[in-house]
Protein backbone atom coordinates (compact mmCIF):
# COMPACT_ATOMS: atom_id res chain seq x y z
CA UNK A 1 0.00 0.00 0.00
CA UNK A 2 1.42 3.38 -1.04
CA UNK A 3 -0.24 6.78 -0.74
CA UNK A 4 2.39 9.32 -1.70
CA UNK A 5 0.13 11.68 -3.60
CA UNK A 6 -1.04 11.23 -7.15
CA UNK A 7 -2.38 7.76 -7.90
CA UNK A 8 -2.15 5.69 -4.69
CA UNK A 9 -1.46 1.96 -4.79
CA UNK A 10 -3.49 -0.62 -2.90
CA UNK A 11 -3.44 -4.33 -3.57
CA UNK A 12 -6.92 -5.84 -3.43
CA UNK A 13 -5.59 -8.89 -1.58
CA UNK A 14 -4.30 -6.63 1.21
CA UNK A 15 -7.68 -5.13 2.05
CA UNK A 16 -10.36 -7.56 0.82
CA UNK A 17 -11.86 -8.06 4.29
CA UNK A 18 -12.01 -4.30 4.92
CA UNK A 19 -13.43 -3.73 1.44
CA UNK A 20 -16.22 -6.20 2.03
CA UNK A 21 -17.10 -4.65 5.38
CA UNK A 22 -17.08 -1.13 3.90
CA UNK A 23 -19.27 -2.41 1.07
CA UNK A 24 -21.95 -3.48 3.54
CA UNK A 25 -21.68 -0.20 5.46
CA UNK A 26 -22.18 1.85 2.31
CA UNK A 27 -25.17 -0.32 1.38
CA UNK A 28 -26.79 0.56 4.70
CA UNK A 29 -26.24 4.29 4.23
CA UNK A 30 -27.27 4.14 0.57
CA UNK A 31 -30.51 2.42 1.49
CA UNK A 32 -31.21 5.17 4.03
CA UNK A 33 -30.82 7.74 1.26
CA UNK A 34 -33.05 5.67 -1.02
CA UNK A 35 -35.78 5.61 1.66
CA UNK A 36 -36.11 9.40 1.63
CA UNK A 37 -34.78 10.85 -1.64
CA UNK A 38 -37.28 11.48 -4.47
CA UNK A 39 -36.98 8.88 -7.23
CA UNK A 40 -34.78 9.74 -10.21
CA UNK A 41 -34.45 7.77 -13.45
CA UNK A 42 -31.92 4.90 -13.51
CA UNK A 43 -31.77 4.89 -9.67
CA UNK A 44 -29.61 8.00 -9.55
CA UNK A 45 -31.35 8.98 -6.31
CA UNK A 46 -29.77 6.11 -4.37
CA UNK A 47 -26.08 6.75 -5.04
CA UNK A 48 -23.36 8.24 -2.85
CA UNK A 49 -20.92 10.96 -3.91
CA UNK A 50 -17.30 11.73 -3.20
CA UNK A 51 -16.69 14.54 -0.73
CA UNK A 52 -13.57 16.32 0.48
CA UNK A 53 -13.44 13.85 3.37
CA UNK A 54 -14.91 10.62 2.03
CA UNK A 55 -18.32 9.58 0.73
CA UNK A 56 -21.62 11.38 1.31
CA UNK A 57 -25.31 11.05 0.65
CA UNK A 58 -25.43 14.82 -0.05
CA UNK A 59 -28.44 16.66 1.45
CA UNK A 60 -31.44 14.33 1.64
CA UNK A 61 -34.90 15.92 2.06
CA UNK A 62 -36.73 15.07 5.29
CA UNK A 63 -40.03 16.75 6.21
CA UNK A 64 -39.34 20.50 5.88
CA UNK A 65 -35.57 20.15 6.25
CA UNK A 66 -32.76 17.80 5.26
CA UNK A 67 -30.13 15.44 6.63
CA UNK A 68 -26.77 14.21 5.38
CA UNK A 69 -24.67 11.16 6.18
CA UNK A 70 -20.96 11.19 5.40
CA UNK A 71 -18.26 8.57 5.68
CA UNK A 72 -15.43 10.75 6.99
CA UNK A 73 -12.44 8.70 5.91
CA UNK A 74 -9.94 11.16 7.36
CA UNK A 75 -11.19 11.00 10.95
CA UNK A 76 -12.92 7.62 10.41
CA UNK A 77 -16.32 8.62 11.65
CA UNK A 78 -19.74 8.22 10.11
CA UNK A 79 -21.17 11.72 10.54
CA UNK A 80 -24.93 12.29 10.56
CA UNK A 81 -26.06 15.92 10.34
CA UNK A 82 -29.42 17.66 10.06
CA UNK A 83 -30.29 21.07 8.65
CA UNK A 84 -31.32 22.30 12.11
CA UNK A 85 -27.74 21.95 13.37
CA UNK A 86 -27.90 18.65 15.23
CA UNK A 87 -25.38 15.87 14.64
CA UNK A 88 -24.37 12.38 15.68
CA UNK A 89 -21.35 10.20 14.91
CA UNK A 90 -20.67 6.48 14.65
CA UNK A 91 -17.08 5.25 14.81
CA UNK A 92 -15.60 3.58 11.74
CA UNK A 93 -13.59 0.83 13.40
CA UNK A 94 -13.28 -2.96 13.38
CA UNK A 95 -16.77 -4.15 14.32
CA UNK A 96 -19.47 -6.42 12.89
CA UNK A 97 -21.87 -5.05 10.30
CA UNK A 98 -24.67 -5.87 12.75
CA UNK A 99 -23.23 -3.43 15.31
CA UNK A 100 -22.66 -0.70 12.71
CA UNK A 101 -26.22 -1.14 11.44
CA UNK A 102 -27.73 -0.88 14.92
CA UNK A 103 -25.65 2.15 15.92
CA UNK A 104 -26.34 3.95 12.65
CA UNK A 105 -30.09 3.43 12.85
CA UNK A 106 -30.05 4.47 16.53
CA UNK A 107 -28.11 7.65 15.66
CA UNK A 108 -30.58 8.45 12.90
CA UNK A 109 -33.52 7.94 15.25
CA UNK A 110 -31.79 10.14 17.81
CA UNK A 111 -31.84 12.94 15.24
CA UNK A 112 -35.55 12.44 14.71
CA UNK A 113 -35.17 10.94 11.24
CA UNK A 114 -37.58 8.01 11.25
CA UNK A 115 -36.38 5.45 8.71
CA UNK A 116 -37.20 1.94 7.57
CA UNK A 117 -35.07 0.17 4.97
CA UNK A 118 -34.98 -3.24 3.34
CA UNK A 119 -32.16 -4.35 5.62
CA UNK A 120 -30.64 -6.99 3.34
CA UNK A 121 -27.75 -6.29 0.92
CA UNK A 122 -28.20 -6.33 -2.85
CA UNK A 123 -25.98 -7.60 -5.66
CA UNK A 124 -24.04 -9.96 -3.38
CA UNK A 125 -24.29 -13.64 -2.60
CA UNK A 126 -24.99 -14.71 0.08
CA UNK A 127 -27.13 -11.78 1.20
CA UNK A 128 -26.91 -11.84 5.00
CA UNK A 129 -29.35 -9.43 6.70
CA UNK A 130 -27.44 -6.49 8.19
CA UNK A 131 -28.77 -7.15 11.69
CA UNK A 132 -27.39 -10.71 11.55
CA UNK A 133 -24.03 -10.03 9.87
CA UNK A 134 -21.34 -10.94 12.38
CA UNK A 135 -18.96 -12.10 9.62
CA UNK A 136 -17.81 -8.78 8.13
CA UNK A 137 -15.86 -7.17 10.96
CA UNK A 138 -12.60 -5.85 9.48
CA UNK A 139 -11.71 -2.18 9.10
CA UNK A 140 -8.21 -1.08 8.13
CA UNK A 141 -8.46 2.71 8.37
CA UNK A 142 -5.39 3.36 6.22
CA UNK A 143 -6.63 1.07 3.44
CA UNK A 144 -10.10 2.62 3.44
CA UNK A 145 -8.55 6.06 3.10
CA UNK A 146 -6.33 4.97 0.20
CA UNK A 147 -9.37 3.53 -1.57
CA UNK A 148 -11.12 6.90 -1.22
CA UNK A 149 -8.07 8.62 -2.68
CA UNK A 150 -8.16 6.19 -5.61
CA UNK A 151 -11.79 7.19 -6.14
CA UNK A 152 -10.82 10.87 -6.04
CA UNK A 153 -8.32 10.37 -8.85
CA UNK A 154 -10.78 8.33 -10.89
CA UNK A 155 -13.54 10.89 -10.41
CA UNK A 156 -11.26 13.76 -11.42
CA UNK A 157 -10.40 12.19 -14.77
CA UNK A 158 -13.86 10.76 -15.45
CA UNK A 159 -15.40 14.12 -14.55
CA UNK A 160 -13.24 15.86 -17.12
CA UNK A 161 -14.21 13.20 -19.68
CA UNK A 162 -17.87 13.84 -18.82
CA UNK A 163 -17.56 17.43 -20.03
CA UNK A 164 -17.09 16.23 -23.61
CA UNK A 165 -20.70 15.09 -24.03
CA UNK A 166 -23.83 17.16 -24.70
CA UNK A 167 -26.41 14.42 -24.39
CA UNK A 168 -28.06 12.90 -21.35
CA UNK A 169 -25.41 11.73 -18.89
CA UNK A 170 -25.25 10.66 -15.28
CA UNK A 171 -23.22 12.27 -12.53
CA UNK A 172 -19.99 10.54 -11.58
CA UNK A 173 -21.34 8.69 -8.57
CA UNK A 174 -20.78 5.69 -6.30
CA UNK A 175 -23.20 2.79 -6.66
CA UNK A 176 -23.20 0.89 -3.39
CA UNK A 177 -24.76 -2.22 -4.92
CA UNK A 178 -21.58 -3.21 -6.74
CA UNK A 179 -19.26 -0.80 -4.88
CA UNK A 180 -18.18 1.00 -8.03
CA UNK A 181 -17.66 4.59 -9.14
CA UNK A 182 -19.68 4.95 -12.35
CA UNK A 183 -20.49 7.37 -15.15
CA UNK A 184 -22.98 6.72 -17.96
CA UNK A 185 -23.77 8.33 -21.33
CA UNK A 186 -27.03 7.77 -23.23
CA UNK A 187 -27.76 7.72 -26.95
CA UNK A 188 -31.30 9.06 -26.43
CA UNK A 189 -33.02 5.91 -27.70
CA UNK A 190 -34.89 3.30 -25.63
CA UNK A 191 -33.26 -0.08 -25.08
CA UNK A 192 -34.77 -3.57 -25.09
CA UNK A 193 -35.79 -4.83 -21.63
CA UNK A 194 -32.75 -5.87 -19.61
CA UNK A 195 -32.73 -9.60 -18.74
CA UNK A 196 -31.55 -8.99 -15.17
CA UNK A 197 -29.30 -11.50 -13.49
CA UNK A 198 -27.57 -9.53 -10.71
CA UNK A 199 -27.64 -11.54 -7.45
CA UNK A 200 -30.31 -10.51 -4.97
CA UNK A 201 -31.50 -7.71 -7.23
CA UNK A 202 -34.97 -7.90 -8.81
CA UNK A 203 -35.11 -7.86 -12.62
CA UNK A 204 -37.38 -4.79 -12.56
CA UNK A 205 -34.58 -2.85 -10.89
CA UNK A 206 -32.23 -3.71 -13.72
CA UNK A 207 -34.87 -2.89 -16.34
CA UNK A 208 -35.23 0.62 -14.94
CA UNK A 209 -31.47 1.12 -14.78
CA UNK A 210 -31.01 -0.01 -18.37
CA UNK A 211 -34.19 1.39 -19.92
CA UNK A 212 -32.26 3.39 -22.55
CA UNK A 213 -29.22 2.72 -24.71
CA UNK A 214 -26.07 3.56 -22.81
CA UNK A 215 -22.31 3.43 -22.60
CA UNK A 216 -21.00 3.20 -19.04
CA UNK A 217 -17.57 3.29 -17.45
CA UNK A 218 -16.09 3.38 -13.99
CA UNK A 219 -13.77 1.92 -11.38
CA UNK A 220 -14.30 -1.15 -9.19
CA UNK A 221 -12.00 -2.30 -6.33
CA UNK A 222 -11.78 -5.86 -7.60
CA UNK A 223 -11.18 -7.90 -10.72
CA UNK A 224 -7.42 -7.38 -10.70
CA UNK A 225 -4.38 -6.92 -8.51
CA UNK A 226 -5.21 -3.30 -7.62
CA UNK A 227 -8.75 -2.87 -8.91
CA UNK A 228 -10.12 -2.36 -12.40
CA UNK A 229 -11.43 0.34 -14.68
CA UNK A 230 -14.28 -0.94 -16.84
CA UNK A 231 -16.42 0.08 -19.80
CA UNK A 232 -19.47 -1.55 -21.38
CA UNK A 233 -22.48 -0.74 -23.51
CA UNK A 234 -26.11 -1.87 -23.46
CA UNK A 235 -27.35 -3.26 -25.70
CA UNK A 236 -24.00 -4.49 -26.96
CA UNK A 237 -23.75 -3.98 -30.75
CA UNK A 238 -22.23 -6.52 -33.11
CA UNK A 239 -18.45 -6.23 -33.28
CA UNK A 240 -18.05 -4.49 -29.92
CA UNK A 241 -16.08 -7.29 -28.31
CA UNK A 242 -13.67 -7.39 -31.25
CA UNK A 243 -13.09 -3.64 -31.34
CA UNK A 244 -9.50 -2.60 -30.67
CA UNK A 245 -9.45 -0.06 -27.86
CA UNK A 246 -6.66 1.80 -26.11
CA UNK A 247 -4.31 1.46 -24.27
CA UNK A 248 -2.76 -1.94 -25.11
CA UNK A 249 -3.32 -3.15 -21.53
CA UNK A 250 -7.11 -2.98 -22.04
CA UNK A 251 -8.94 -6.16 -23.00
CA UNK A 252 -12.48 -7.48 -23.40
CA UNK A 253 -13.76 -9.93 -20.80
CA UNK A 254 -16.37 -12.21 -22.42
CA UNK A 255 -17.69 -13.34 -19.03
CA UNK A 256 -18.46 -9.81 -17.87
CA UNK A 257 -19.11 -8.44 -21.39
CA UNK A 258 -16.92 -5.46 -20.50
CA UNK A 259 -13.62 -3.91 -21.49
CA UNK A 260 -11.26 -3.92 -18.51
CA UNK A 261 -8.13 -1.91 -17.73
CA UNK A 262 -6.13 -2.76 -14.59
CA UNK A 263 -5.73 0.12 -12.14
CA UNK A 264 -2.01 -0.61 -11.96
CA UNK A 265 -1.69 -0.07 -15.72
CA UNK A 266 -3.02 3.46 -15.20
CA UNK A 267 -1.22 4.32 -11.97
CA UNK A 268 2.09 2.93 -13.23
CA UNK A 269 2.02 4.66 -16.60
CA UNK A 270 4.08 7.74 -17.49
CA UNK A 271 0.86 9.80 -17.76
CA UNK A 272 -1.98 8.19 -15.77
CA UNK A 273 -4.54 10.86 -16.70
CA UNK A 274 -3.89 10.43 -20.42
CA UNK A 275 -3.87 6.62 -20.14
CA UNK A 276 -7.25 6.51 -18.44
CA UNK A 277 -8.75 9.14 -20.75
CA UNK A 278 -7.61 7.10 -23.75
CA UNK A 279 -9.46 4.08 -22.36
CA UNK A 280 -12.63 6.07 -21.65
CA UNK A 281 -12.66 7.73 -25.06
CA UNK A 282 -11.83 4.68 -27.17
CA UNK A 283 -14.40 2.44 -25.44
CA UNK A 284 -17.07 5.15 -25.79
CA UNK A 285 -16.24 5.49 -29.49
CA UNK A 286 -16.61 1.72 -29.90
CA UNK A 287 -20.08 1.84 -28.34
CA UNK A 288 -21.21 4.96 -30.19
CA UNK A 289 -19.85 4.05 -33.62
CA UNK A 290 -21.02 0.44 -33.65
CA UNK A 291 -24.32 1.37 -31.98
CA UNK A 292 -25.11 4.08 -34.52
CA UNK A 293 -25.25 6.97 -32.06
CA UNK A 294 -25.71 10.49 -33.46
CA UNK A 295 -22.28 11.66 -32.36
CA UNK A 296 -22.54 14.98 -34.18
CA UNK A 297 -25.54 15.92 -32.04
CA UNK A 298 -24.21 14.44 -28.80
CA UNK A 299 -20.67 15.78 -28.72
CA UNK A 300 -19.45 19.41 -28.64
CA UNK A 301 -17.83 20.77 -31.77
CA UNK A 302 -14.19 21.87 -32.02
CA UNK A 303 -15.13 25.43 -30.96
CA UNK A 304 -16.91 24.31 -27.79
CA UNK A 305 -15.54 25.48 -24.45
Automatic annotation (TrEMBL):
InterPro entries: DUF5996. This is Ava_C0101 and related proteins. It comes from Dactylosporangium aurantiacum.
Amino acid sequence: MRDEGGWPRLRVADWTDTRDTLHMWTQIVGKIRMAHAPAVNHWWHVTLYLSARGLTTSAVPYRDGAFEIEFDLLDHQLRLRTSDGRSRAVALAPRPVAVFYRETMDALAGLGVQTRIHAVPNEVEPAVPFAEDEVHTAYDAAAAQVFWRQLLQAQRVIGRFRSGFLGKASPVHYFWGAMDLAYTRFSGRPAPPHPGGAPNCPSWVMREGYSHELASCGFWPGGGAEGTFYAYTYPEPAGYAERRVRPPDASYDPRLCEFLLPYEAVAGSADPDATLTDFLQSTYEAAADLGGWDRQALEPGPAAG
